[in-house]
Amino acid sequence: MKRGEISTEKLIGLVLLLAFLMIAAGIIYIVYGEVDATKMGQFSCWMSNGLKSGSGPLGKLIPSTCSMTIVEEKAGLEDITKMLTNTWWMYHQGDIDLGSTASEVAVFQFIVKDEISFENLVQRLVKFKGETQVTDLKDSDFNYLQEGSEGPTLCVGLPIIKEDYKLKKDQIYFIMFFESNRILEFLNVKDVGDKVIISSTPNLDQEENYYCPSYANLKEGISIYKTVLSGTPIKVIGAKKIE
Q: Is 148 helix (H, G, I), strand (E, B) or coil?
């Protein structure tokens, strides 16, 4: 192939990408009456993930439209829970396969407005669905993250644990999507399931370990262990960037 020429595979990928973006823009305009850049970015990410996972060999030709969103305004409790649920939605509630090995991607970068305890964060997820307060756990954001998952979905990196399970005011954090894969079982590594992880870096390997919360009786959506995180740490093994 001559210098400057585009391979057939790359050309197909670019055509598919353009088609996805046009479809995404059309759907968002129909639903919201305008093309919002943030909504379009999230929808096109959701769409490309679904097509990459469900298109067999053709999936390798489909480029990812996902990129990390840097949140400009400082984030409060409601903002962070929305980022968590949006991440889980964009990656199809963990019900997709984007590669043969464990993969990671930084989805959001944000600065905390005021100090937030991890327990309060979970309580918000338990008591609300978006902006609406709920009384039944099955209607909550927590259930949305957790339903159908292998073990807890929401996890945090070790540095946050060392900060007494708190997100500190004016600190930068990242929300990561971690895709596990059953191929790890052949390497005698337990498949821990897909996770949404609050991390202090955009690279999970630098976190050393991440920990997933263990919950007590969530009847009426109000009770969780005071010691939020417990049990054996889960190492990030063989993680690579999702492309």
A: coil
Q: Within 13 Å of residue 114, how many CA atoms lie on the same side as its CB?
A: 5
DSSP structure class, residue 172: E
* Rounded Cα gap, residues 154 and 109, in angstroms: 17
Letter for the amino acid at 165?
Answer: Y
The percent of the chain in helix, strand and coil, each rounded to the nearest 5, is 40, 20, 40
**Side chain identity at residue 39, one-letter code:** K
Q: How far apart are the first and last CA of the chain?
A: 24
Rg (CA), the chain: 19
Q: What is the model's pTM?
A: 0.75
Name residue, tokens 């070790």.
Answer: 158
Q: Which two tokens stand for residue 221?
A: 């959506």
Higher pLDDT, 42 or 51: 42
* Rounded distance between C-alpha atoms, residue 114 and residue 105, angstroms: 26
Condensed to tens digits (0 to 9), the pLDDT of residues 3-35 reads: 333 344 544 555 565 565 666 555 554 555 555
Q: Is 132 helix (H, G, I), strand (E, B) or coil?
A: strand
For residue 241, CA distances in Å to 34, 43, 70, 177, 203 come to 32, 20, 18, 10, 9
Spatial contact of 84 and 69, defined as CB atoms under 8 Å apart:
no
